[in-house]
Specification:
Layout: H1 11-28, H2 47-52, H3 79-83, E1 90-96, H4 99-110, H5 114-124, E2 136-139, H6 144-150, H7 154-166, E3 175-177, H8 189-196, E4 200-202, E5 212-220, H9 224-235, E6 240-248
Parallel strand pairs: 1-6, 2-5, 5-6
Antiparallel strand pairs: 3-4
The structure holds zinc ion (ZN) (2 copies).
């Protein structure tokens, strides 16, 4: 077997050496699933963990996509959407925000793993809502202060991957977050709506007249954030705003 020094002048041997070296490293430190920490060669989240994400299934509110807990209930509007029609046209989520999905989103937010964003973004593109035709995909923006602190916007990362998968333009800079809002954990619906009021604006030169938009976020809780974004997009002329999130918190 060639040694590193003797292979220096022989590129094919060097390549062989590097390949062997990588294989050796993989044996010593095998790639692991970020969720269960078991070995997973093919992806950041292993097949079993991905299969354990609990999908939101019918019956769902026909507007905001909230699941109805009573079995055999028809798809209709939920109590909130009967009281007040939401600012978006329709909202959908893939999974319940619980257990491994909640962990996956925490990892997406706090560990900058572009391969994890790619994996989760690909899951987004499997939702039937993405079969509709959209002019633009817009991720919910972070405030500049939060963006600087975190270094990236997780919703933008998954939106980019979705855009690549369904061949649709992603525009992350049209919508801006101009107010650093408080973290919304523990806030009630009305408090959340007030918290995000006036938090977003469209860049001055943006004209969305007649456009059909798919708004992307990681988690949907009361819909206050995506609702406020939808209002701004509609004010800017958007014809239709559909919302898609990876996960949904059930309050
Ligand atoms: Zn796993
Ligand atoms: Zn609803």
């Amino acid at each position: 077997m060639e040694t590193p020094s003797s292979s220096h002048n022989h590129p094919p041997a060097t390549n062989l050496f590097m390949a062997l070296f990588r294989a050796f490293i993989d044996i010593l430190f095998p790639p692991k699933c970020l969720i269960c920490m078991r070995h997973s060669i093919e992806q950041e989240i292993c097949t079993q963990c991905t299969a354990s994400f609990k999908p939101l299934i019918s019956p769902l509110c026909i507007l905001c996509g909230s699941p109805f807990l009573t079995e055999g209930d028809d798809n209709h509007r939920c109590g909130n959407c009967i009281k007040e029609i939401p600012p978006f046209d329709i909202a959908a989520s893939l999974f319940y925000y619980e257990e491994k999905m909640a962990l996956a989103i925490q990892k997406l937010k706090y560990s900058k793993k572009s391969s994890l964003a790619a994996h989760l973004g690909k899951l987004l593109s499997e939702h039937p809502i993405t079969e509709n035709v959209f002019d633009l995909i817009i991720p919910v923006p972070l405030h500049l202060s939060r963006l600087r602190e975190r270094g990236f916007n997780q919703s933008q990362l998954i939106a980019k991957e979705l855009g690549r998968n369904i061949s649709c333009n992603v525009k992350a800079s049209l919508l801006e977050r101009i107010k650093p809002t408080l973290p919304q954990v523990g806030m009630k619906r009305k408090e959340r709506i007030l918290n995000v009021k006036g938090a977003f604006q469209l860049r001055e030169d943006v004209d969305l007249r007649g456009k059909s938009i798919l708004l992307i976020d990681d988690v949907f809780t009361t819909g206050a954030t995506v609702g406020e974004c939808s209002k701004i997009l509609k004010k800017g002329g958007a014809n239709e705003v559909s919302v898609l999130t990876l996960a949904r918190v059930i309050l």
